[in-house]
Design goal:
The chain is α/β, with parallel strands linked by helices. It has helices at residues 28-37, 57-61, 84-95, 111-114, 126-139, 159-168, 191-200, 214-223, 233-237, 241-249, 259-274, 281-296, 304-311, 316-332, 355-358; strands spanning 6-8, 11-13, 17-19, 45-46, 50-51, 75-80, 101-106, 144-149, 173-177, 205-208, 228-231, 257-258, 299-300, 336-337.
């Protein structure tokens, strides 16, 4: 049986799954939803990334992206920027919020981040990345981790150098997304290269990219020597995936999620959103529609009529009325939720989602 846990200094990560931070998606309500649906079996949760440029301590500590709850632990705060002193200052300030670790982002590919030298832009300036890691490490007492890509483009694959810098500057874990910055989210992640990094590393390496199914997650853990897998866009379509992976690692038989059960998550998600002081019913409705649009793709048989109805709802009340009607229909017709039908045989999505197109953060 595959090993189902690892350590980041004094942090026990069990099971060995991570929810990748995604701007505009993985806020506290969505993270809590995934954790509930997993049966509280998620290894690590991370904040949406936080810019360190030009922010006062008050602004840093009161950003909506930094709201988290005790049940989310172990929990990390991810920061991005290009100025070592600002990164270190922000890390020091944000440690007062009591995260379990601080993560440096050297992987975001979106132009307004990477184009300004932050995120994956740091992969074009490894001396600067080295200085950032050095200063952040000195500024915090909690573990420091790094997330990166394999390089800027196919002609500058430098992830092995990044690993050496991370280890040399005291990083306690490295998460590697198996694409270059130029690839964005197109093509396939290079898991052979992730495996080479994991085999050479003295610190835990977590692999990221195309982990869209239980089958592929288990393959990555068995074949590529990574300590864990980080799941991003697949969680948007299948928030049960963490629990499904945990079941497989525990040797449990897979269970079928019905369409009726899938529809029940909307209320849980809405309630989590409305617990936030900054949430409004109208704003929550928009997020409900986003989730519904993704989940509807997994219903068997497909239900374009239901998708159209919920996406044209004018209020949360109307949304839930239409969901309840559909739940009765789904139960009567024994409909199931099968997002794996969107995957091809090696577990990767056939229709790559453009992160840059959907989320401009």
């Amino acid at each position: 049986m595959l090993k189902n846990e690892f350590q980041i200094v004094n942090i026990r990560v069990s099971p060995c799954t991570v929810l990748s931070p995604m701007a505009g998606v993985t806020d506290a309500p969505f993270r809590r939803l995934c954790r509930v649906l997993s049966g509280n079996r998620m290894g690590l949760l991370v904040s949406e990334f936080v810019s360190t440029d030009g922010a006062s301590p008050f602004i840093l500590k009161n950003r909506k992206q930094l709201i988290f709850y005790p049940e989310e632990r172990p929990f990390g705060i991810q920061i991005f920027g290009r100025h070592p002193e600002r990164m270190a200052y922000a890390a020091h300030v944000l440690e007062s919020l009591k995260p379990d670790y601080i993560e440096v982002n050297a992987g975001c590919p979106v132009p307004k981040v990477a184009g300004k030298g932050g995120g994956a832009g740091l992969l074009k300036d490894l001396p600067r990345l080295k200085e950032i890691l050095c200063e952040v490490k000195k500024a915090v007492s909690v573990p420091m981790t790094l997330k990166c890509r394999v390089g800027w483009d196919e002609n500058s694959i430098n992830v092995m150098e990044t690993l050496k810098i991370a280890e040399g500057e005291g990083a306690d874990m490295l998460t590697v997304h198996g694409r270059t910055r130029v690839q964005g989210y197109n093509g396939f992640a290079n898991w052979d290269l992730i495996g080479e990094v994991a085999s050479a590393a003295r610190i835990p390496v977590v692999g990221n990219g195309d982990v869209n199914s239980v089958q592929f997650a288990l393959e990555c853990l068995e074949k590529y020597d990574v300590k864990g897998v980080s799941i991003g866009r697949a969680a948007m379509h299948n928030p049960w995936l963490f629990g499904e992976i945990a079941d497989a690692l525990e040797g449990k038989a897979p269970r079928v999620v019905t369409a009726e059960e899938a529809c029940s998550v909307f209320k849980t998600y809405y309630d989590f959103m409305m617990e936030e002081s900054t949430s409004t019913p109208f704003g929550a409705l928009g997020r409900l529609k986003q989730l519904a649009a993704r989940l509807c793709k997994g219903f068997v048989p497909e239900t374009p009529e239901f998708r159209q109805k919920v996406l044209t709802s004018q209020s949360p009340e109307e949304f839930f009325e239409r969901v309840e009607l559909f739940k009765d229909y789904a139960k009567t017709n024994a409909m199931t939720f099968a997002p794996e039908r969107l995957m091809n045989l090696n577990g990767r999505k056939e229709d790559t989602i453009s992160f840059e197109r959907q989320f401009k953060g």
